[in-house]
Batch of 4 targets.
Target 1
Amino acid sequence: MGNRVDDVLIIGGGLQGCAIGLFLARSGWTVTIVDKAVPGRHASGVNAGGLRLLMRDVREYPLSLRAMEMWRSLESIVGYAPAQASEVRLGFSQIALALDDAEMQWVHARHQEMLRRGYTHEEFITAHELQRILPGLADSALGGLISRGDGHANPANASLAFRQAAESAGVLIHEQCALKQLNKLSSGRWSADTDHGVIEANWVINCAGAWGSQIAATLGDELPIRVLALSMMVTARMKPFIEPVVIGIDRPLSFKQSAVGSLVIGGGISGKPCLDDGTSFTIMDRMASSANATLEAFPALAGVPVLRTWTGLEGSTPDGIPYIGPSSRHEGLWHVFGFCGHGFQLAPAVGEAVAHSLVSSSLHPLLEPFNTSRFMSSTSAELQGLQQ
Ligand SMILES: Cc1cc2nc3c(=O)[nH]c(=O)nc-3n(C[C@H](O)[C@H](O)[C@H](O)COP(=O)(O)OP(=O)(O)OC[C@H]3O[C@@H](n4cnc5c(N)ncnc54)[C@H](O)[C@@H]3O)c2cc1C
């Protein structure tokens, strides 16, 4: 590798890294991304593709609203053909289903709270209307919340779209290139020791997903995450019968029917993460709990063949929202990880807001809730309490 000195080195070429790189390069900054695997190999390429405002943590709402606008106009960001390939389908709705009295009480409370905050995207939906739009739904469904503008996209193609747009904008991407060590030079620049040699940059952005906490820790930044192996399964093709994405409130339920008819089932359950090997596994009894939750909501699906399962590694923070912001210890270092299973939808807005913050030298207001020092005075017992 030559003596190139970049404005920014991004560790991790998932959707967050590529989106940030894209917007920085379009602002005229020189950017290199290193990924120890292939961009999109991990969470960004294997997720469920859900694009939802529904049931978001309210602190994420403003960023998520901006992201939804950007998904809606994806063509203007990545170009016509990559946007088409990304199969963004908004307006199909996402529905949170209440199957018992406790969940129904939660639905009413959440609905009131969102209205009080001025958010009208989550509407109350009756059992009668649910039966009309969700054929095969269990009689026990009591009602729920619907976010009619939500939908989904194709995660692998969307990741590729952002990667290619970033490269077209001038971002240099090194695949199979792990960051091994970061050092601060006397000039104030960062020197990164990587599989492809030394890279110098004025800024480093840690977008290493499930590995983000490890990288932060090597620099003394304690940003705890729990590493999850989020698990999915896909069934044989069925006749099209359902358009919305259906998610559970207090049970591991999440499913949609793909364009080809197969059911894609998740629900936030974790298998076995193997961070050091860069892999993860589904676990039989946990997949069974996901299947049971699906059958509780849609009993008619018993007997549908499951074709395959898969997992993806993701970091979950103690309070359920990501770390996005400058390091409190090191100048020129940002952390952007810990998306807790819902960072696919946020990525375009994260890219735009992080790039805007660096270029303008002032934190974008949409990023204020995610500051990286929010647990600095917490004890480990308090952090565990937040995680429950
Ligand atoms: C199964 C599953 C389902 C999901 N469903 C949804 C959903 O429906 N909707 C939604 O919004 N979100 C969903 N998510 C969450 C979403 O996928 C993630 O929040 C998002 O992709 C995170 O992007 P990222 O770029 O931070 O991480 P990643 O895509 O994991 O990218 C991190 C990259 O960093 C690289 N890296 C790590 N360490 C190093 C190193 N030392 N040197 C160089 N490179 C390194 C890795 O190789 C990796 O490519 C789901 C996640 C999973 C796993």
Target 2
Amino acid sequence: MTEPLVLGIETSCDETGVGVVRGHTLLGDALASSVDEHARFGGVVPEVASRAHLEAIVPTMQRALDDAGVTLADIDAIAVTAGPGLAGALLVGVAAAKGYALAAEKPIYGVNHLAAHVAVDTLEHGPLPEPAIALLVSGGHSSLLLVDDLAAGVTPLGATIDDAAGEAFDKVARLLGLPFPGGPPIDRAAREGDGASIVFPRGLTAPKDLARHRFDFSFSGLKTAVARWVEARERMGEPVPVAHVAASFQEAVCDVLTAKAIDACRERGVETLVIGGGVAANSRLRALAEERCAKYGITVRVPRPKLCTDNGAMVAALGSHLVAAGVAPSRLDLPADSAMPLTTVSV
Ligand SMILES: Nc1ncnc2c1ncn2[C@@H]1O[C@H](COP(=O)(O)OP(=O)(O)OP(=O)(O)O)[C@@H](O)[C@H]1O
Ligand SMILES: [Mg+2]
């Protein structure tokens, strides 16, 4: 029996994504981004994002189907991000998915965007061994999760108590005069710098913090430390060594993320670490995770950078996993839930 053909729709933030997956194989993927329209504001403007989704959704859908060489009639199930994310942006995707599901008489799955960031790795590395620890690092979230059964739910072990990792990249990039979103330009600038040149703080790693926040993160103190350091240089009339600051900031983030992820694997006796979300595209994070996990016999799985940031393939991947696990579809009146908890994988 051939595996079901699942289409995934993603509109939770500023990327309109549609992907088509059969089993663990990505057949087609299309993306339209409104990122350039937000750049001058230094962050995503919700209303601008919603309007851009509305314009992009139908053509993006068609491009993904064409890319996969299938038609809507061939699709076995439609998955859509139902949350968390920007309310207006989510609504566009959910309404579109309902329209297509109703018109083509297909089952619909309203899924969690964050679980999809974890599930996307199956398109690259096949079924996820369970239990696994997932390090989810994106623009809005930074969490460590225990994944016993991705179709049923995940167990949060810890999360950021202030800024998300991606948010820290975006804010520090702004301080350094680099464009939005800040992750990619910091990653590039850091290659010319020395990550050991400036010692920035590692949030929630002191023994007194570990007692209460062993698997939690904090990046706002780091961001402030970078701001103070840059201001001090400017006050002295000295040029800011952007590459060194970028590399040292990046090192501080990656050091904490990998150390806590490995600690979680060891505490739970888990041998697989999967990293997902936009920050998983970071080259230093990928290298450091590989290097450190190898020492403990932990296998690291990180999808290719293009699959780390928001896309439709990740939603299709999670949908495909749910269909294979025999999870019942959502009701056609499923809501968009901007604050959907991490523990809800599908509605
Ligand atoms: N190479 C990179 N290094 C570091 N950060 C990166 C890199 N590429 C992208 N990012 C960061 O990833 C974030 C975007 O990731 P993603 O699209 O998963 O977030 P989001 O969808 O906005 O948030 P969420 O998934 O929490 O709703 C941005 O903050 C961006 O700066
Ligand atoms: Mg995301």
Target 3
Amino acid sequence: MSDELEHLAPDAETLARRLAAVDYLVDEGLATALFLSLRLPQPLLLEGEAGVGKTEAAKALASALDTPLIRLQCYDGIDASEALYEWNYPRQLLAIRLAEANDARLGEDDLFGPQYLVRRPLLRALEHPGPRPAVLLIDEIDRADDDFEAFLLELLADAAVTIPELGTIRATHPPAIVLTSNRTRDLHDAVKRRCLYQWIEYPTAERELEIVRRRVPAAAESLAVAVVTAVAKMRESDVQKPPGIAEAIDWLAALQLLGVIELDETTIDRTLGAVLKYGEDQDVVRAAGLGSLV
Ligand SMILES: Nc1ncnc2c1ncn2[C@@H]1O[C@H](COP(=O)(O)OP(=O)(O)OP(=O)(O)O)[C@@H](O)[C@H]1O
Ligand SMILES: [Mg+2]
């Protein structure tokens, strides 16, 4: 572990302050999880409802540590060639043609050297030269398939990967790894066991108010309070997709842009699409009466 990290994050409170300085506000639980993940070091798996700040946690951590964020967005069918590395076929072919044209000798070892390697996010994160570790965000891991999770195990456990033609590449500055999942399926126990785990709750009304005020500074405080209150009520209602912090921010920004001063039934009705993104959910809150949100 580098001295720099010890200096930047001597304890969870200092890290929380650094995150607040880049407008990411954490509670004690998340601050502690991020601190331990950095300093142990051990990958951190973040789960929580949509829009509670899972992805943003990694981005904010990178900003707070003034280090690059390297992001791997997972999807169904992602494999090692997208995540780790791929050989640059066109370039290898060109090298062969050129060697033939020049009557030069070209061995297999030459063709599978580092200059023909296309580095994908995982490899870039491992090879990050420091002095501080990069932050590696493996976003929405639940979208990838089982095989891909198994493939990640070596990386998670040892901060190393094996490339058959080149051997094992070990990080000199192991990245701070943040994984996120929306729980569309359960992850392997083997992956979970290698990670610290943190469930991100919706923030308290107080913290959410501070978050939306920082993100939409032009909005009046009374409007921000009304939005946070209404969003909290929506979360408690029977909607299928409760609004996240992202929606609270978007809604406040929309209201502010429209010049709304006070949140009432009419303004909620006009702008409901900024906060509830499903027709059925809009029907649910309309049926309960929009007036009950203010
Ligand atoms: N703790 C926080 N402090 C400040 N802003 C936050 C916080 N949490 C979330 N936000 C804001 O909410 C937005 C949405 O967060 P983010 O995209 O990280 O959510 P997510 O949990 O990754 O959602 P999804 O499940 O949809 O991917 C961020 O862009 C950020 O502006
Ligand atoms: Mg996300």
Target 4
Amino acid sequence: MNLYNIKHPEEQVNFAQAVRQGLGKDQGLFFPEIIPTLTNIDELLALPLVERSQKILAALIGEEIPTETLNAMVKNAFTFPAPLAKVNDAIYALELFHGPTLAFKDFGGRFMAQALAAVRGDGKITILTATSGDTGAAVAHAFYGLENINVVILYPKGKISPLQEKLFCTLGGNIRTVAIESDFDACQALVKQAFDDEELRQAIGLNSANSINISRLLAQVCYYFEAVAQLPKEKRENVVVSVPSGNFGNLTAGLIAKTLGLPIKRFIASTNANDTVPRYLRSGQWEPNATVATLSNAMDVSRPNNWPRVEELFKRNGWNLADLGSDALNDVETEQALKAQNDEGYLCEPHGAIAYQVLKDQLQAGETGIFLCTAHPAKFKESVERILDIELPLPEALDKHNKLPLLSDVMENDFAKLRAYLLAK
Ligand SMILES: Cc1ncc(COP(=O)(O)O)c(C=O)c1O
């Protein structure tokens, strides 16, 4: 598989290098040179998740990873289902929260850990990643206990749910967590700065596990196929998918699935009040505001990292950005959406509720809508219980971690301090 740096197309790498490096020169994102068109979509859709995903990833990655190795990677990573739940005759929920950390990031995180273990070579590796909530848990659990791989996770102090924090800040071992006294964009900026520091990069074998790492993105492509595969055949014609979006990795993966030939009519990017993209799609002006804290905190991102990849896909496919649906919901509207969903008999959480409501608002007659449920409702227990006036039992995975003490370090938003911390350990 050949990939190029979107900012500097002359920088070209193979899959192994892209996985090890994460980001290219000038923080440029790597992007596949070729995304093949699959001609056997119906055959693929008839296969079970793991087998189908092995074939999709083989088509994307090519011969660079031996078939047996790739098959084992997929089998080890995708150990849980992604069921499609019917909400009403026209709307389905793709439940991506049945993995060990109850969030969609388990797909990407676990596949990336497998990929890195397969291509790492002999050197020491430090995974440095920023999280607005769920990435941290997925990465921490995917890498926990892997030999010679250290993981450092930055997150905005006080801006993620207490339960989310417990899930990844209680592991210890090769997983270290740092609460940064600022917002997610600052955490992301610190990670980028670290990657720009060549000396640091070499010294600790820096690698990222954000959605900027191509292996995570490729893994996420697979569950869009799984969604369509579970639809009744007569409903596969006019499929519209609504993606709750923050950093836009998930949407990028969906667009790659469409590029491969998956029959998806259009996508909708659904955001919270951090609405840089919906405003950009309306006005043509890229004008990020300061990030604001919302109920759907994992989407509190005003400068989405993956947006250049989205634009690249539209450009290369000759698609029109005007065809990308979008809208933003504020917290009051998010609460109403969660209640409306619950009234329809489907229990969700704020991120999925936004994707559901925007889908419902924009779905046309004759279309089948799918929205992505990116996290288990219990991961946002406080909000869900308050808004719906119900009591939610904690699933076992959360309950176990909830009882353990937090092991995080606290740090100012200061790159010099982070640098020293990384070098010291
Ligand atoms: C629960 C949840 N929903 C949605 C998103 C947004 O996904 P993306 O950053 O790929 O747009 C995230 C990202 O962390 C998330 O944790």
